[in-house]
């Protein structure tokens, strides 16, 4: 048992470091968190079979990571999309306009902003709301909390419809992005408006900060799907998922 725990700790340290000292290190952390988040969402929402995933650990939390599998072309397509996202992030082309979010049942949005020190990356719903800033002194601890929140929420949400289509969309800064640029796996998009068929609820989950990037995690889902998380709680317009460091899950309403 002690040997297994030691191996997990070593893998965890490599996956998410305690400190980030350079922009390149920060970029690697952002890519890993993006991969963990997207993989976790697709796994826990039942979009692909078990064989499409490998497993890793973030602290004591087992996380499933999408991989390219010949017998599962859908999963391979998502992996290729992610690689295209990584290229665009590294080139500093990514931009997201929260006011121009098509017809969806659940929405996740990664927003990238670049500063003098590097990029600011938000993973959030179509809302301009702000959450409190976390210290960037311990990136690993903040990342662990964020991953736990994501997995706790995904494991308790109501199911998606039997037939769903996964779509990924990128937006760029026009003044710095080459006119004909499209990362691998992407094409020029049509339409900017997103609409929910049923009443949506916006959820704020938290953030991870480094000296070069900040990643905020929010999502939007249908109200009836969220009510299955805890039927005794009346969901209000803004629902905030809060998890204390010791692992206690609580709900905070605004």
UniProtKB/TrEMBL annotation:
Residues 24-219 form the HORMA domain. It comes from the Eukaryota. Gene3D superfamilies: HORMA domain. One of its GO terms (cellular component) is chromosome. It is found in: Chromosome; Nucleus. GO terms for biological process: meiotic cell cycle. Keywords: Chromosome, Meiosis, Nucleus. InterPro entries: HORMA_dom (IPR003511), HORMA_dom_sf (IPR036570), HORMA_MeioticProgression (IPR051294). This is Putative HORMA domain-containing protein 1-like isoform 8. The lineage of its organism: Eukaryota, Metazoa, Chordata, Craniata, Vertebrata.
